[in-house]
Amino acid sequence: MTKSVRMTVFALLAVVAVILGLTFNKFTQSPPLDREKLRDEGVFIFETPRTFSMAPLVNHENQPFSVDNMKDHWTLLYFGFTFCPDVCPTTLAKLNELSLELQALDSELARRFKVVMVTVDPQRDNPEKLAKYVPFFNRDFAGVTGDMSNIYELTRQLNVAFTPVGDTTQDDYLVEHSANVVLVNPKGDYHGFIRPPLLAAQLAKSLQSVDRGF
Fold it and tell me: Strand, helix or coil at 146?
């Protein structure tokens, strides 16, 4: 067998191996869950993702943050505030657990999901305050703040409700807010939302299915 023939045979064998590998992967992977099944697990996916706009805000490093920062990856967008006594720290801790579950499931998949907390209390939550709070739960998490009118307009488009409770001229007021987590797809569109409780292991598999079906 000449050298050129051997190279041709090796090349053909390599092509066959790749095709077999892709075929095996296709049939061994479970199919994406349908929307009804995902809904049963607390993940609500819209039939048609919704576009939304936002005036520029700033992250906890005081850098501009806009829809463009949520493109080319999935974003889990949570609306909370640093003075929140229970729901917000619990949710951020659960989202950290989710990040660990995604990492264990598929490290490449984990890199495609980013967590961002947008404050609903910009009066107290400046970038410096967010920088001490949000990365405490996970150094890769981002905190976002800005003008209240811009935040309100963003929450209006994403169906997130919030309202201050108490005297906002004092330091001890609270903010009632939705506990849902907004899911923004890699195109920067409102793809759906996740209702608590956030069961990390189950949610990681659900989000793997959502990513596979995108």
Answer: coil
Q: How far is CA 72 from CA 2, 21, 184, 186, 189, in A?
A: 48, 27, 10, 4, 11
Would you say the C-alpha torsion 74, 80, 84, 85 has a positive or negative sign? negative
pLDDT in tens, 129-183: 999 999 999 999 999 999 999 999 999 999 999 999 999 999 899 999 999 999 9
**158 touches 45 (CB < 8 A):** no
Is the pTM higher than 0.90? The answer reads: no
Structure tokens at 102: 């995604």
78 strand-pairing partners = 117, 181
How many Cβ atoms from other residues are within 10 Å of residue 99's Cβ?
21
pLDDT tens string 54-86: 998 999 999 999 999 999 999 999 999 999 999
Residue 93 burial class via C-beta count within 10 angstroms: exposed 0-12, middle 13-18, buried 19 and up: middle
